[in-house]
């Protein structure tokens, strides 16, 4: 499938002006000097949309992502996550070390993000949940698509215990989506799925089935030199599963990806990823035993020498303004890191 280069790259914003690079690097060197005092910033992305989504203006789009990658490439030493893990292990991180990661396996990662990463010569790791490849959809995207397209000004989900929502304006629609996602997120897998199916019956919208990558797109990313990492099969909250089911999710996701790329999958990302809430020490042990080299959480902060390589923290970049973005990157390096 023709997932490769798109026309977006040519029309994107310019990266950070070069006169700001030296002071930015000097500023960041104070927080991330390298060697035994090195800090590793790992950024987490999910989707990169072709253009700004009015319903979710905080979501990355091609223009914003290109701008951020330009800034990052100018100010940080962006490495592959496997190289960075080796650097952490050996106490040899370069100054201003950073990695880029993507979670879940959205098709736009291959269609929109990959050409931008190649343009800036930036490596990245893509953590893919295998159960949604080739036409699947994550439950949260079904909810988003249904409520995004729901007709009228009011959405009545009282029949399935979710209440009634005003959806006449974009902020109301966004609020309705967030409320429904919050109500469903921590339900057991089966009851969450049946609620979502009931929503599909109540709301006359057909959600798209090309949001997630195809197996060919996973191979495309891998053959472009990107790392592919495990993210389970069905993206469950591991701490809500029995241990044998959690172990099977982690192991099968790895096997399926290895079957697709014909290479070892050595990195893992915990679904949802908050230490203590979404995964526990048992899961860290499983990930190690199953044969991964390292794993990432969604705790804030930056890793340092001696950090648990199976619970590396990640940071969600979100500021569209250049200098504020750099400042937040520096602030993140000072945060204490949560682990289990
Ligand atoms: Zn995820």
What does this protein look like?
It is built from eleven helices and ten strands. With 340 residues, the protein is α/β, with parallel strands linked by helices. The chain has two domains: 9-134 and 209-334, TIM Barrel; 139-202, no CATH class. Residues 1-14 have low confidence and may be disordered. Residues 103-104, 231, 235, 271 line the site of zinc ion (ZN).
Characteristics:
single chain; 340 residues; alpha/beta; TIM Barrel; six-stranded mixed sheet; 11 helices; disordered N terminus; binds zinc ion
Furnish the topology, listing elements before pairings:
Blueprint: H1 21-31, E1 39-45, H2 62-75, E2 77-78, H3 81-90, E3 97-104, H4 107-120, E4 125-128, H5 139-149, E5 154-157, E6 163-166, H6 170-185, H7 189-202, H8 215-223, E7 227-230, H9 243-261, E8 267-269, H10 281-290, E9 294-296, E10 303-304, H11 322-334
Parallel strand pairs: 1-3, 2-3, 3-4, 4-7, 8-9
Antiparallel strand pairs: 1-10, 5-6
Helix pairs in contact: 1-11, 2-4, 4-8, 5-6, 5-7, 9-10
Report the biggest beta sheet as strand number plus sense, adding barrel if it closes.
Answer: 6 strands, mixed
Hetero groups = zinc ion
Topology as a string of helices (H) and strands (E): HEHEHEHEHEEHHHEHEHEEH
The parts where pLDDT drops under 50 for at least 5 residues are: 1-14
Give the helix tally: 11
Mean pLDDT: 90
Radius of gyration, whole Å: 20 Å
Write down the domain tally: 2
CATH topology of the largest domain: TIM Barrel
CATH architecture label of the largest domain: Alpha-Beta Barrel
**What proportion strand?**
5-15%
Helix content: 40-55%
Q: In whole angstroms, how far apart are the ends?
A: 41 Å
């Amino acid at each position: 499938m023709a997932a490769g280069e798109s026309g977006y790259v040519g029309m994107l914003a310019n990266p950070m002006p070069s006169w700001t690079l030296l002071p930015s690097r000097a500023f960041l060197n104070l927080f991330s000097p390298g060697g035994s005092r090195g800090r590793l910033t790992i950024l987490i992305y999910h989707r990169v949309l072709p253009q700004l989504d009015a319903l979710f203006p905080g979501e990355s789009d091609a223009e914003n992502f290109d701008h951020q990658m330009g800034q990052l490439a100018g100010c940080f030493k962006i490495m592959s996550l496997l190289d960075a893990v080796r650097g952490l292990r050996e106490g040899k991180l370069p100054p201003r070390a950073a990695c880029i990661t993507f979670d879940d396996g959205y098709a736009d990662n291959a269609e929109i993000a990959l050409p931008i990463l190649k343009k800036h010569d930036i490596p990245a790791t893509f953590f893919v949940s295998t159960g949604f490849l080739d036409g699947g959809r994550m439950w949260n995207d079904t909810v988003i698509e249904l409520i995004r397209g729901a007709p009228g000004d009011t959405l009545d989900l009282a029949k399935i215990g979710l209440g009634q929502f005003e959806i006449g304006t974009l902020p109301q629609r966004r609020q309705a989506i967030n409320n429904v996602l919050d109500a469903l997120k921590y339900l057991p897998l089966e009851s969450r799925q049946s609620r979502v199916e009931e929503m599909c019956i109540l709301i006359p919208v057909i959600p798209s089935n090309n949001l997630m990558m195809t197996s060919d797109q996973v191979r495309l990313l891998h053959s472009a030199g990107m790392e592919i990492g495990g993210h389970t099969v069905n993206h469950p909250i591991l701490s809500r599963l029995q241990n044998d089911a959690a172990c099977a999710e982690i192991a099968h996701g790895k096997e399926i990806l290895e079957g697709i790329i014909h290479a070892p999958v050595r990195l893992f990302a915990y679904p949802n990823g908050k230490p203590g809430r979404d995964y526990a020490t048992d899961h860290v042990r499983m990930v190690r035993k199953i044969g991964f080299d390292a794993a990432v959480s969604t705790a804030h902060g930056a890793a340092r020498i001696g950090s648990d390589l199976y619970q590396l923290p990640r940071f969600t970049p979100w500021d569209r303004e250049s200098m504020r973005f750099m400042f937040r990157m520096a602030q993140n390096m000072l945060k204490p890191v949560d682990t289990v």
